[in-house]
Every structure is written in C-alpha cells, then in structure tokens.
Amino acid sequence: MAGEIQNINTDILYDKHIMLVDDDEDNLLLMATYLLKHGARVATAIHGMGCLDFIEQCNDLNLLLIDLHMPLMGGLEAIERIREQSDYKSIPIVVLTDDDTVGIRDKCVNLGANDFLSKPITKDELIEAICVWISNAGYEG
Predict the structure, then answer these.
(1) To which CATH superfamily is domain 4-134 assigned?
(2) What is the pTM of this model?
(3) What is the 3-state secondary structure (H, E, C) of the chain?
(4) Distance CA 56, CA 41 (A)
(5) Angstrom distance (rounded) from CA 49 to CA 38
(6) What is the spatial distance between Cα 35 and Cα 137, in angstroms, rounded to a whole number?
(7) DSSP-assigned beta bridge partners for residue 4
(8) 44 - beta bridge partners?
(9) Are 115 and 106 in contact (CB under 8 A)?
(10) Could you give the CA distance from residue 103 to residue 39 in angstroms, rounded to a whole number?
(11) What is the pLDDT along the chain (141 residues), one digit of tens a residue?
C-alpha cells in the first residue's frame, strides 16, 4: 500500500472511486497519476456536463473533486445539480480552484460543497483532504 503522508493513512484510498473535474488536462493528469499511485480508481471530466453524465452512470463514487471555471458547465452549477438529486446528496464534494473572489468559498459551501481548496496546492495537501473526506463519515459509496 501507499503508506502515510503527514500522519494520514493513505491506504484508505485503495479502491476508492474518485472523480476529478477540471478543464486543465495537465492538472487532471497530475492529480490522476498521484491518486492512481495510491490505489484509487479515477474518473475524469473536463466540464460539469461530463461530470453529471458520469455520475448518472456510476453507483460507487466516493468523492468528487471539482474546479469552478470550466466550459459548457462550471463547477457551481454542477454542484447545485448534483445536490438536487437525492441519490447524490452524501457524496463528498471538494472544490479545487484558483478563484479567490470574495465570498466564493461560502457560495460553494451553500450550494453543497463539503470543502474548498485553493490552487496552488501540494500533492500531499490534496491527498490529505481527500483522505479526510473519504474517512470523515465513513462514506463508502
């Protein structure tokens, strides 16, 4: 198994299904590669519509990591639509964005995001946040 990062047991990532949504394909590749090294199963989309399409087909998603500003449908609208559907109310949603607009964190949380991370972020900070939310309520998908 992968081991630990700053007292976080990354073994919890093994076989967890994590979706990454970001229009920056380099970011997707970096995050996906790192999560795969820790045994996670990773799905990706480059906009909110792709995210919604995938979630409708998936019955074992453990966590959604989503950017805010993307073409076709941004993260805010995607979060709102996901939370409107009763089947997806308990999926942890973590926003990862470089948007530093005043009040954006509160807006994300009010729409249903569980956490808000600001770019740039280290790989260890990313993995730590994901591990915390997967284990937080014992969410298993």
Answers:
(1) Response regulator (3.40.50.2300)
(2) 0.89
(3) CCCEECCEEHHHHCCCEEEEECCCHHHHHHHHHHHHHCCCEEEEECCHHHHHHHHHHCCCCCEEEECCCCCCCCHHHHHHHHHHCHHHCCCCEEEEECCCCCCHHHHHHHHCCCEEEECCCCHHHHHHHHHHHHHHCCCCC
(4) 17
(5) 27
(6) 20
(7) 9
(8) 20
(9) no
(10) 35
(11) 445 455 677 899 999 999 999 999 999 999 999 999 999 999 999 999 999 999 999 989 999 999 999 999 999 999 999 999 878 888 999 999 988 888 999 999 999 999 999 988 888 899 999 999 998 755 444
Q: Which two tokens stand for residue 29?
A: 């590749």
CB atoms within 10 A of CB 49: 16
CA–CA gap between residue 36 and residue 50 (Å, rounded): 21
